[in-house]
């Protein structure tokens, strides 16, 4: 009985330590985080587009976390500065991602601000990036003989246009592009506070 009690007590202690390390301490560190300068809440269209991004599994191939140069040359790739907590202030849940089958998208709205480019790229990625392994998303578009009043067909490069047809984005495609265009985390980051006097620099 004593062994069982000791085992239970040890297990509870380990659980408490793990909870403190993985939940409590990160919460205390980040609970006062503020949005980075210039960051605004998502619009309704952008939030809907974010759901389309999630539903189509974009997070499985794309990250949203530019990394420090000691981990990857993300800055040299043009993916932006290192991400900070404030960059995700309005992201619930965050979409950090871990795989990089495709490029990091944290700042795709800066690298590719054109809605026409995004729409065409979603319909046929290889028309814009030769050899791309990204899947196309034809179900986000309607291929028809002529656009309805108020609809704007997308412009595709020669050789990728359906003969005699036009390609019109669905509302879901437009929302997804609105979300991608909103991905701009290039705002300045406040410098780290100075260390208290008497604290030596780590070697």
Task: Describe the protein.
The structure is a single chain. The protein has 203 residues and is mainly α. The chain has one domain (35-182): Cytochrome c-like domain (Cytochrome Bc1 Complex, Chain D, domain 2, Orthogonal Bundle). It is built from five helices and two strands; from the N terminus they run H-H-H-H-E-E-H. The chain has a two-stranded antiparallel ribbon with strand order 1-2. Helix 2 crosses helix 5 and helix 4 crosses helix 5 (171-182). The chain is elongated, with a radius of gyration of 23 Å. The protein starts with a helix and ends in a 21-residue tail after the last helix. The mean pLDDT is 88.
Label the overall shape: elongated
**Count of all domains:** 1
Radius of gyration: 23 Å
Q: What is the share of helical residues?
A: 25-40%
In brief:
This protein has 203 residues and is mainly α. It is built from five helices and two strands.
């Amino acid at each position: 009985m004593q062994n069982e009690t000791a085992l239970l007590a040890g297990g509870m202690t380990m659980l408490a330590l793990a909870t403190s390390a993985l939940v409590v301490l990160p919460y205390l560190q980040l609970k006062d985080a503020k949005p980075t300068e210039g960051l605004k809440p998502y619009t309704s269209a952008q939030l809907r587009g974010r759901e389309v991004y999630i539903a189509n599994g974009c997070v499985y191939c794309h990250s949203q976390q530019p990394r420090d140069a000691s981990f990857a040359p993300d800055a040299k790739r043009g993916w932006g500065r290192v991400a900070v907590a404030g960059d995700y202030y309005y992201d619930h849940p965050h979409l950090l991602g871990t795989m990089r089958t495709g490029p990091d998208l944290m700042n795709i709205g800066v690298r590719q601000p054109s809605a026409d480019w995004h729409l065409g790229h979603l319909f046929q990625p290889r028309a814009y990036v030769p050899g791309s392994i990204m899947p196309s998303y034809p179900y986000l578009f309607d291929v028809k003989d002529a656009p309805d009043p108020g609809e704007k067909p997308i412009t595709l490069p020669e050789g990728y246009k359906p003969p005699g047809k036009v390609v019109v984005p669905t509302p879901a495609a437009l929302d997804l592009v609105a979300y991608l265009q909103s991905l701009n985390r290039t705002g300045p980051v406040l410098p780290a506070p100075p260390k208290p006097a008497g604290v030596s620099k780590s070697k």
